[in-house]
Amino acid sequence: MKYFDLVSNNEEVKIYLIQSDKNFKSLGYTEQGLLHAKHTAELIDKILKSLEFKEQDIDIAKTAGFLHDIGCAVAYPEHSRSGAIISKKLLHKLNIPIKATINIASIIGSHEDIDMIPISDLAAAVMIADKTDVRRERVIKTDFKLFDQHDRVHYAVVKNSLNILKNERKIKLQLVIDTDICSVLEYFDLFFSRIEFCKKAAGKLGLSFELYINDVKYL
Ligand SMILES: [Fe+2]
After folding, report:
1. pTM of structure
2. 36 Cα to the center of ligand 1, angstroms
3. Is it the case that residue 30 has pLDDT exceeding 90?
4. Separation of 184 CA from ligand 1 center, angstroms?
């Protein structure tokens, strides 16, 4: 059985991710639970399959991607470090071999390290998948008057597609933003650091990162 299947179907993991989401909701943030975990894993699958990585490596990266925000179940600050420790214990309980466990835990532990080059190609794929997950569906609040900048930017993204052009050595993020809800400037104001993450991570994979918003190329 794949590690990803073991982990994504595990009840204890679900409890942690549900708690992560609850903590985020109470802070007024966007969705950070099971849906973000699944979406991140799906994007990792897409990136690494497009680049023809081995099945075992894709499984490691998807497992790390599913678990990457699990540390938010205890606290948002330093959640990558706490997430690595929580994951190591969970993976040990699931009898996942120590080599794979440490590989997954180190990807989780370093996924917020913007000042560093990603520790591996698999870590780079996790960062890109995490940082490009900007969608209207992640907004939890229903009253527009209560939206903060995070909510507005996520809500404004009506279409998000990430494509990997292997032969052109490019990764392309195409967003359609409703500019009546949020301006392109506001998007950059909030997501500048995420774009930096994506550029660095794409570079680790030997790719350039391109960003299109409403069919205009910004990067
Ligand atoms: Fe995340």
Report:
1. 0.95
2. 7
3. no
4. 22
